[in-house]
């Protein structure tokens, strides 16, 4: 066996390498294991248990295993109504159901090094819902792992940056502004309903319509018109790209939290990077045109407030361009899928419960008397309100741990 003898000079040259490796190892050990373990210990001492995570992947392998085992059994066992309404948690998130049975209504699980507190205890849900963003803060992983989609916008920001964004964005959702949007919502809804009617007529009075894409387009149409005014066609192009970005990011959703996975030049990561820079250019182009168009500057759309907000403050973590791009993306993301899936959920509940359809129809006839819907009439439609309020799922992101509030 040959042994290599190093001279003192060679040893000295190796020292920085040894030093760097030790630093890297202790950094990885602290962030990936020690810090999450301390957090878990704190919660364990308060009686919060949960499945044992593995190093690097947390509980992802177990989630995959439970999902694989559960899906065929549920598909066979559940009726169509069951599968989509009361029992949908079992179909979509069988691991939550399994862990709830084992650990109770509050437990901790991990995806990679991200720790999530799963809560379905009503009192705690109530208490958490009363916390404002600044009370608990938002976790840094959102900006790191979902950077291409959320950046440093209002959904991920903390401290002064969040306060400034909130001041800029909140007035856009004051009641008088929303009242002014009802007409454009009606226009978008009517054009969608007309296309459904045309389809039904062309197919002899009966047609099967897959509503998801229509509702997504409807929601994109409304937010684009409300946010970008006359530039709404370009706004819709951004939606299309953001949807593609979401799909690309969903491909690696189980890997979120696995250290370093977002830097690997995989096919989906490359797609994410390309779409990210394409969306950025599209938004900045609209913003530039808006600045040159005096009519657009007079009509104060959401984009106008964001552009003004980007000039009003300087933050080390965010350039004025980032401010515009990230907040536009955040509004798209926050308002698009949420409203379209809520609408799809309501339609699905109505389809599953014909007696609710009768109630809703009678109410609309009673309130509208054949006239177009307006803001005041909308407030009188209680069945629709009840449907919207029937919970889907909610996830609140807070510093250190994510809080998943299940229905
Ligand atoms: C059914 C529809 C919607 C649901 C269920 C929903 C749900 C939520 C939830 C749970 C949060 C808190 C997230 C967190 O703190 O971690 C949130 C925040 C937010 N949502 Fe929505 N949302 C909906 C529609 C919209 C729409 C239409 C818009 C705008 C066009 C919007 C804009 C926002 C913004 C800007 C925030 C961040 C507020 C802040 O941090 O101060 N949302 N939403």
TrEMBL record:
Gene Ontology biological process terms in this record: lipid metabolic process
Keyword Iron annotated: yes
Matching InterPro entries: Cyt_P450, Cyt_P450_E_grp-I, Cyt_P450_sf, Cytochrome_P450_Monooxygen
Subcellular localization: Membrane
Family annotation (Gene3D superfamilies): Cytochrome P450
Pfam families: p450
GO MF, one annotated term: oxidoreductase activity, acting on paired donors, with incorporation or reduction of molecular oxygen
Tree of life domain: Eukaryota
Keyword Transmembrane helix in annotation: yes
Alphabetical keyword list: Heme, Iron, Membrane, Metal-binding, Monooxygenase, Oxidoreductase, Transmembrane, Transmembrane helix
One GO cellular component term noted in the UniProt record for this chain: membrane
Protein name stated in the entry: Cytochrome P450
Gene source species: Triticum turgidum subsp. durum (Durum wheat)
Phylogenetic classification of the source organism: Eukaryota, Viridiplantae, Streptophyta, Embryophyta, Tracheophyta
């Amino acid at each position: 066996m040959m042994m290599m003898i190093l001279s003192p000079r060679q040893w000295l040259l190796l020292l920085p390498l040894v030093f760097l490796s030790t630093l890297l190892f202790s950094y990885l050990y602290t962030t990936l294991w020690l810090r999450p373990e301390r957090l878990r210990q704190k919660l364990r001492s308060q009686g919060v248990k949960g499945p044992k995570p593995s190093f690097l992947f947390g509980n992802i392998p177990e989630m995959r295993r439970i999902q694989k085992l559960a899906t065929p059994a549920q598909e066979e066992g559940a009726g169509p109504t069951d599968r989509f309404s009361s029992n949908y948690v079992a179909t979509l998130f069988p691991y939550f159901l399994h862990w709830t049975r084992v650990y109770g209504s509050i437990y901790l699980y991990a995806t990679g090094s991200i720790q999530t507190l799963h809560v379905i205890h009503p009192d705690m849900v109530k208490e958490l819902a009363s916390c404002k963003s600044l009370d608990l803060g938002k976790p840094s992983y959102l900006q790191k792992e979902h950077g291409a989609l959320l950046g440093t916008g209002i959904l991920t920001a903390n401290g002064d940056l969040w306060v400034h964004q909130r001041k800029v964005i909140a007035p856009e959702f004051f009641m008088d502004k929303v009242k002014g949007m009802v007409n454009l919502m009606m226009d978008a809804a009517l054009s969608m309903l007309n296309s459904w009617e045309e389809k039904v007529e062309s197919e002899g009075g009966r047609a099967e319509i897959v509503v998801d894409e229509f509702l997504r387009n409807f929601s994109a149409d409304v937010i684009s018109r409300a946010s970008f005014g006359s530039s709404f066609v370009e706004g819709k192009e951004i939606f299309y790209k953001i949807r593609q970005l979401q799909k690309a990011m969903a491909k690696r959703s189980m890997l979120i939290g696995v250290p370093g996975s977002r830097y690997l030049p995989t096919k989906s990561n490359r797609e994410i990077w390309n779409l990210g820079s394409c969306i950025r250019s599209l938004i900045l182009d609209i913003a530039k045109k808006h600045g040159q168009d005096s009519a657009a500057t007079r009509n104060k759309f959401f984009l106008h407030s964001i552009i003004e907000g980007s000039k009003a403050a300087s933050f080390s973590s965010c350039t004025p361009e980032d401010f515009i791009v990230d907040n536009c993306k955040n509004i798209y993301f926050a308002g698009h899928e949420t409203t379209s899936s809520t609408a799809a959920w309501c339609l699905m509940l109505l389809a599953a419960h014909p007696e609710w359809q009768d109630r809703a129809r009678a109410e609309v006839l009673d309130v509208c008397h054949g006239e177009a819907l307006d803001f005041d009439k909308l407030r009188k439609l209680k069945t629709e309100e009840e449907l919207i309020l029937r919970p889907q799922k909610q996830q609140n992101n807070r510093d250190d741990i994510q809080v998943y509030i299940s229905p």
